[in-house]
TrEMBL record:
Annotated ranges, domain Cation efflux protein transmembrane: 68-261
Organism: Mumia flava
Annotated Pfam families: Cation_efflux (PF01545), ZT_dimer (PF16916)
Similarity section: Belongs to the cation diffusion facilitator (CDF) transporter (TC 2.A.4) family.
Membrane topology designation: Multi-pass membrane protein
Entry keywords, A to Z: Membrane, Transmembrane, Transmembrane helix, Transport
Domain annotation Cation efflux protein cytoplasmic: ranges: 268-333
GO CC term (a single one): plasma membrane
Residue span of region Disordered: 1-30
TM spans (from-to): 72-96, 102-118, 139-157, 169-191, 211-230, 236-253
The protein's name: Cation diffusion facilitator family transporter
Biased composition (Basic and acidic residues): 1-14
Biological processes annotated in GO: intracellular zinc ion homeostasis
InterPro entries in alphabetical order: Cation_efflux, Cation_efflux_CTD, Cation_efflux_CTD_sf, Cation_efflux_TM, Cation_efflux_TMD_sf, CDF_Transporter
Length: 345
């Protein structure tokens, strides 16, 4: 007589696990090298689908919040330095650009709120928790990158059709250098931490900072062209930078959209299947489903066991299977294992 299936629920936010294993974790994809790979990393950075360094949900959220706080301080210092240049030069255009940078920096606040919400426990109304708030914040960041591309493109076309003389070239270039340095530092921080904790939204916010840095870099290059006697350098460089932002936008929208559609790296599914092959008494894996909720990976697996297995033995097998999945995917949040008799699978 077939026995009923047994489900094993393991939630990283409720249980501490000591892995103590010494194997390397693969990302499920290979990394190319060389100039082409460097350009791809700059223009199309992606969030790793596995967190190798942080396997605790609260610790990962704290790391994300800390990155947002530090980046806000860096952008505040950048804006303050630009404001000093505005006061010294008296340039209204630089003042407008400084205000734009401050407003862009505030887009990190929704992400901060999302990280805080992700730490709240699940409720009857939200049984899967609040991790999706992070993905929604990522969608907001994508919209802001699109807006940056639109503003840069429209302004470049306007200046190309109706060239305007650039004044205070030295100060303009100085403000551009400050803006690029500050935004790029923030981009590197957000992208690095976002990859480490598996947050597509934080990576997207890093891309947003990089897009703003490219805009500042365009100001520097354009000012140099005007100083060299080529007044159209400013709008032409602006169009090139707009194209670069569009490339950044495409890659970021792909990553955030994939998370919202419950897409995962197929390599992760293969890792789970391979881990379960090594679990004693698991005859085969019948179903593997993974999806992200913010920066935590939710895992649902169905495995087939011998028809004569008792309920207690099946529960023990499910426990070993869950432990094997966690060893393979340290970033996993909730792991649900369902056992079914092999004859009924």
């Amino acid at each position: 007589m077939p026995r009923p299936h047994v489900e094993r629920d393991v939630d990283a936010t409720r249980h501490a696990h000591s892995h103590g294993h010494g194997h390397a974790h693969s990302h499920g994809h290979s990394h190319a090298h060389g100039v082409r790979a460097w350009l791809k990393g700059v223009f199309v950075p992606h969030s790793h689908d596995v967190s190798d360094s942080i396997d605790d949900a609260l610790q990962a959220s704290r790391a994300g919040i800390r990155a947002v706080k530090v980046s806000l301080v860096l952008l505040g210092l950048t804006a303050a330095a630009q404001l000093v240049i505005v006061v010294v030069s008296g340039s209204v255009a630089l003042l407008a650009d400084t205000i734009h940078n401050v407003s862009d920096a505030l887009t990190a606040i929704p992400l901060w709120i999302a990280f805080v919400l992700a730490r709240r426990p699940a409720s009857p109304r939200y049984p899967y928790g609040f991790g999706r708030a992070e993905d929604l914040a990522g969608l907001f960041v994508v919209a802001m990158i699109a807006l940056s591309a639109l503003v840069a493109g429209v302004e470049s076309v306007r200046r190309l059709a109706d060239p305007q003389p650039l004044e205070h070239l030295g100060w303009v270039a100085a403000a551009g250098v400050v803006g690029f340095a500050g935004n790029e530092a923030v981009a590197v921080l957000r992208i690095r931490v976002g990859r480490r904790i598996g947050s597509a939204a934080l990576v997207a916010d890093g891309v947003h900072a990089r897009a703003d840095g490219f805009t500042s870099l365009a100001v520097v290059i354009g000012a140099g062209g005007v100083w060299a006697g080529f007044p159209l350098a400013d709008p032409i460089v602006g169009l090139v930078i707009t194209a670069a932002i569009v490339v950044l936008l495409a890659g970021t929208a792909r990553d955030v959209g994939r998370r919202l559609l419950d897409g995962v790296d197929p390599g992760l599914v293969a890792q789970v299947e391979q881990a379960l092959v090594e679990v004693p008494d698991v005859e085969r894996t019948t179903d593997v489903r993974l999806r992200w909720s913010g920066h935590r990976l939710l895992v649902q697996v169905s495995v087939a066991v011998s028809p004569g297995t008792s309920v207690a033995a099946a529960d023990a097998i499910a426990g070993r299977a869950a432990a094997a999945v966690r060893r393979a995917l340290p970033s996993a949040g909730r792991v649900d294992i369902t056992t079914t008799p092999s004859a009924a699978a």
